[in-house]
Amino acid sequence: MKNIKKIIFIFLIFACLTAAFAPFIIPVPELEGLVSEEAFIDKDSKFIEINHVNIHYKASGSGETTFILLHPFGGSVYSWREVMDDFAQYGRVIAYDRPAFGLTERPMPENWVENPYGTKANVETLKSLLDEFGIEKAVLVGNSAGGAVAVAFALEYPERVEQLILVAPGVGGGRNPQFPTWALPIMWTPQMRHIGPLLMRDYQESLPRTIEREWFDQTKLTDEIRETHLRLLKIKNWDRAFYELVFAPAYPELRGLLPELKVKAYIIGGVEDRLIRTWYLEAVAAEIPQAELTFIPQCGHVPQEECPDAFMKVIETYLQSNN
Fold it and tell me: Which CATH class is domain 40-321?
């Protein structure tokens, strides 16, 4: 019996040491050809430090009403290039890159004050941004994952939201069910963070496919548009930032909280959206107390890019009817 206990004890010690040190043995080579965010700065790019993160944004227009444009997963301020000036006819417009995307800084765990990538952090970033610009209330325009941030913000700070414009909003949940909350502390260990980039590099193949699926009319998806969106895969630490985003602190499921929204919501979807179907948006609209829903025919998941004229037409009709 003593020998068996000794063998078990030795085995456990060996298993613990293996778990502690084996991940550090796995090589994680740096991706070649990566550059800093500064390589892609535009003439109208601006930066502001929000909650210890250097946020990239673009602004246009002026007036009493402020529109905050929140891009989808894999997007950036570039996602709003076709409609920035159109929104500016109705007031001030600010589009910014959320952490892990665009030209916004990608702080790493060894340098940050707190994780800037999760939904809660995104809500606080938006609140601080409004504070920095002296904006009491804003119209939040969010596409896909940006719609989830808009909804989460409206739930926490309804007094700061004039109304919501949700473009194919993804509000079904804040995290991949393959990674339960109890597993997060494991994913935050130095060992897992070391090999984390390897887990994210599949996006080099999956993100281009996702971008293609976002568009119904593939003839409108030019090489320039595709390549500009994929610049994020050329920026240093994009893979580490994606890891921190995927395994950021958990946030409550938004779908069940929709009936608690206290602000008006206008939902826009593409009839041919292959990522978020029309029936899903119909269900979401029914669960929000003050919601209207419009579908744009012959359009996919990013109507502000693929069908900007039709998109702004329904936006203008809605804004005029609600003034």
Answer: alpha beta
